[in-house]
Design goal:
The chain is α+β, with helices and mostly antiparallel strands. The chain has helices at 4-11, 18-23, 149-152, 169-177, 181-186, 188-193, 281-287, 314-318, 331-338, 356-373, 417-420; strands spanning 27-32, 44-48, 51-57, 63-67, 81-83, 86-88, 95-96, 102-104, 122-123, 125-127, 131-135, 158-165, 206-212, 215-223, 231-240, 244-250, 252-262, 265-273, 394-398. The structure holds FE2/S2 (inorganic) cluster and fe (ii) ion (FE2).
């Protein structure tokens, strides 16, 4: 449980808020490279941290992210012409390049130096891992770029699903750090409804966490269904500040990036990747029910959403074929997180034994944002952090192996059959 003040402190991300200030001190994803497919293509609207922005790719292929509103008199640059090295406002023709320089003011007198004295708001941009990243904080505090492993693997070894979540970013992060819900929300048909008495699933995981220079990793372990006397099923999740969650792998690795659009909307970039295996992107998107045009509207809101109860199948629930009746991700995870309301009131919760991970997450975030308010550097921006080395695991380990040694014990990650179908 949090006080209302703590809840506000953690959830508000707009300009001028403490958390908004802290989030602006990290490199964050702005959009996918495929949303700006070629030089001089159509610009797109990008809403990030409560700011309206426009992203475009200039004639030489360089991506740029500008404030959406023209520095002249505020017309939307999303309506602008993308031509010959800049974005031209269609109102009076001011033209801006990716760095915010004003290249042309066709209505100003010949010889005017006005354009040298005006600059559009333009944020530094980097394109890596088929993703366009932006840094929205003060230039003097720009941190080194976090070389996540998923941005370094060959393009064919990565599949990114981008889906809008209609809820505050912290609901998404908490849902991902919370290991225990998987046994119920996602697997309740096996673990609760149709329980095999000879092979009961352990739905009471034990949980530990270890703080790191970038956040923390949390470990959950359960008795292994096939040999509960001798083995545990062990999962780890890495919480990488500010909002990256590297969840347990399934043959491929899997990281979520929950980028706040504003206080009540979040981009979920859900990334499958492998250093060694080629992932079939089309098959992966279809299996995950995140295909734009099929499962998503053009703006990437879900077609099955809160207004239609995510297509919940009550008949399947009655017949015990499905526990949730929703049946797949991201609809189960987003659905349950959106069902809490746009910003969960955490002063009214009743946290149980299984919520220790959530409590720890909130402590880490509260300490980070309060440290930021005191002028300390945000957690995770030190140049020495090897982002490309961070990994989570999903393993069967002998029960005598302590969770703290999960990474050191020689064992392979579990590679489920269904995940093998996504590999080429
Ligand atoms: S408002 Fe953009 S050029 Fe005038
Ligand atoms: Fe989940």
């Amino acid at each position: 449980m949090l006080t209302r003040e703590e809840n506000e402190l953690l959830t508000r991300v707009g300009p001028g808020t403490p958390m908004g200030g802290m989030l602006r001190r990290y490199w964050i994803p702005a959009c996918l490279s495929e949303e700006l497919p070629e030089s001089d293509c159509d610009p797109i609207r990008v809403r990030l941290l409560g700011e309206d922005l426009v992203a475009f790719r200039d004639s030489s292929g360089r991506p740029g992210v500008l404030e959406e509103y023209c520095p002249h008199r505020g017309a939307s640059l999303h309506l602008g012409r993308n031509e010959e090295g800049g974005l031209r406002c269609i109102y009076h023709g001011w033209k801006m390049d990716v760095d915010g320089n004003v290249l042309d003011m066709p209505c100003e007198p010949e010889g005017s130096t006005f354009k040298e004295r005006v600059k559009a708001v333009a944020y530094p941009v980097r394109e890596q891992g088929r993703t366009i990243w932006v840094y929205m904080g003060p230039r003097e505090h720009m941190p080194p770029f976090p070389n996540f492993e998923w941005t370094l693997v060959p393009d064919g070894n990565r599949s990114i699903a981008k889906v809008m979540e209609e809820a505050n970013w912290l609901q998404a992060v908490e849902g991902t750090v919370d290991s225990s819900h998987a046994d119920v929300l996602h697997n309740g048909a096996d673990t609760l409804l149709n329980r095999d008495p000879n092979r009961p699933a352990d739905t009471k995981p034990e949980i530990g966490f270890r703080d790191t220079a970038y956040g923390f990793w949390t470990c959950s372990w359960r008795r292994h269904q096939d040999d509960p006397e001798h083995f545990n099923r062990v999962h780890t999740t890495n919480m990488i500040l500010p909002f990256f969650c590297l969840v347990p792998p399934r043959g491929h690795y899997h990281i979520h990036s929950y980028v706040p659009m504003d206080d009540t909307h979040t981009w979920d970039y859900s990334i499958y990747y492998s250093p060694t295996l080629t992932i079939n992107h089309e098959k992966t998107m279809a299996r995950r029910t995140v295909m734009p045009g099929v499962d998503l509207y053009p703006d990437r809101r879900k077609i099955r959403n809160l207004s239609n109860d995510y297509g919940q199948d009550r008949q399947a629930m009655r017949e015990r074929r499905s526990f949730s009746g929703i049946g797949d991700n991201p609809h189960e995870d987003h659905g349950i997180q959106e069902s809490m309301g746009p910003i969960l009131d955490r002063s009214r919760e009743h946290l149980g034994a299984v919520d220790v991970g959530i409590i720890h997450l909130r402590q880490v975030l509260l300490e980070a944002v309060r440290g930021f308010q005191r002028g300390e550097p945000p957690l995770g921006i030190a140049p020495s952090i090897a982002y490309d080395q961070i990994r989570s695991l999903r393993r069967i380990l002998p029960r005598e192996v302590p969770w703290t040694e999960a990474y050191d014990y020689p064992a392979e990650d579990i590679f489920p059959e269904y995940a093998k179908e996504l590999i080429e």
